[in-house]
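retry 2 of 3: previous attempt timed out while embedding D-mannonic acid. Reduced batch size to 1 and resubmitted. Inputs unchanged:
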Amino acid sequence: MSKRLGEATLADLPDAVVRPRYDRRAVTTGIVHLGVGAFHRAHQAVYVDDVLAQDPHWGIVAASLRSPDTYDALEPQNGLYTLSIRSGEGEALRVIGSIQRVIVAPQAVDDLLGVMADPRTRIVSLTVTEKGYCHDPATGTLNETHPDVVHDLRNPHQPRSAPGFILEALRRRRMAGIAPFTVLTCDNLPSNGRTVKRVLTRFAELFDPAFGRFVADEVSCPSTMVDRIVPATTDEDRQRISETLGLSDAWPVVTEPFTQWVVEDRFPQGRPAWEKSGAQFVADVEPYEHMKLRLLNGSHSTLAYLGYLAGYETVADTMADGAFERLIAGLMNEEVTPTLHMPADADITAYRRALIERFKNPALRHRTWQIAMDGSQKLPQRLLGTVRDRLRENAPIDRLALGVAAWMRYVTGVDERGGVIDVRDPMAARLRETADRAGGSPERLASGLLAMREIFGDDLPGDPRFTGPVGAALARLYAQGAKRTVAEWVEAVRP
Ligand code: CS2
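retry 2 succeeded.
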């Protein structure tokens, strides 16, 4: 395949491929996005693409905070890339044009800060994953000893972290008398807007108390619930999509038909009319966020650890095992749903039913290994918050405990056949040391991991109603492996 997807070749696309219906040269930048991964490109960038024909002031300049990979792929394509929507029924392709330019932050700090400080930029949005907020996952407060925080406090004009970039850009705007942009976090954190505000305020305060007060009083950080399953793109996806396009696309993104975005409507500098592309604007996102983090992501992580240990490569493969499907249905219906307090118009039953089908989507090869990443940052909001709510009611937590135990078994770095697990986690080294010290004893492993307060907080490690079921589940996983444990667990806890 010789020709590349780009402005010059858009006209060569087959008719079935949807493409931008607006003049990209007329688009101006209104949004700077930090963390230009596959999720952003299959979610927010699509909502923006939908509105640019009516309102061209919201183009995106997207930054990678670390790797140049996305820049290398998209720059020769003028920022264009293909969105593939896949299900058992087939594949639909659409070229997205809302990303005007990609910046590799470490190589172009001033370029990025310049666009962030430009008065035309009214929103800075983020998908930097849980670990990108430099916070303590159990408490949601800034981790003041985080190496990037220490670095950025010493070198405020040359930041490395997402909060460091935001603060330096806000400082420059403030000096120039330009109103702050709205900070829009699109990561799966609990109360994500409030969390990012807390982190930014504390970080600013460490520079200067007056700056801390300015951030607290003047910077709007609406919370959002984002939902779309976007597995990492594979070489097979690249090849298949490029063949259909008749042009090569170095980095298409592949996703499911489902998409949801619930946003708090607090944008003092204005915002795109995203409601026209299906976003829901509400006064309080928290109930939706809880629903999504606990039902979807809690199930996802449980499936990822147990499924990986059982030898299943993808979520769909794991769900094809009936015992795993029953476990997840039971987790959602019996243990998670009673902790949710939803507005009357939200249909949890329909959401749960749709989730089971989404997890089973045979066309999405979502690897259990991918979801298993960064568990230390994910467990608190996905499983442990639910555990706390259940314990407050003295309600059983057997399935939640099995999920936590599976994470413990997984982070030992050795699978059930003695093979190595590539554990990716900012705390991987400590997790590994703890596992090594436990020397194969499930009791010692559980107590070593439970001592990590930044994950389990100060309450759970001392609560036998939590440590008991987790210890029992872990012992079972060691004794008989994940597959048999799940099969027996489903029978044992059947209501
Ligand atoms: C997944 C999420 O990788 C993960 O941890 O649970 O990325 C999940 O696919 C999205 O939150 C779905 O909206």
